[in-house]
Amino acid sequence: MSERRVAPFVAAGVAVVLAALFAVLLLADSDENATVGSPLLGNLAPDVAAETEEGDPFVLSRRKGSWVVLNFFTHDCVPCIDEHPELITFVDQQRALGPEGAEFYSVVRDSTRDEVEEFFAERGGDWPIVYDLDYEFVNGFGVALVPETWVVDPNGFVRRRFTGTVTADGLSGTIQAMRDGAP
Length: 183
Known about the structure:
Helices cover 40% and strands 18% of the residues. The chain has helices spanning 3-27, 78-96, 113-123, 136-141, 168-179, and strands spanning 49-52, 57-59, 68-73, 103-108, 129-131, 148-152, 158-163.
């Protein structure tokens, strides 16, 4: 068969594949706050430690008694940058709840202190930052890509895992539903 006879079939095949991919993207679930499975869900959170921006130890198991939200990020991750205003709103929502509000921590992965300080200076946000220098948190939680957000209940059990960006209202709503008894 000559090249002229094959070309229309190749073009038609490429068009069919592109149309199928487009259909999959249109039909995909786009819920930004969709949870993702993990063997950690329903189990005690990993007993991991790192250090805060002041160089003090941060041990996750010492946070029992509070709802804890861990958001893994890097300073140059575009989805992390996009989600940052939502995190500012979420922290404000939780602080408005007083002692009932969730504690929020950014867990830094693969960014220097200077890069993180510049990130927060440019974009705002005033919550504790945890530097996971030895990858205890990343490895303990099995974080492959950022942003990724985890919710740990007051008893130290992992309750939710979100991959990708989250919204303030979605995250606050999820935590409130769990406070009210939702699984």
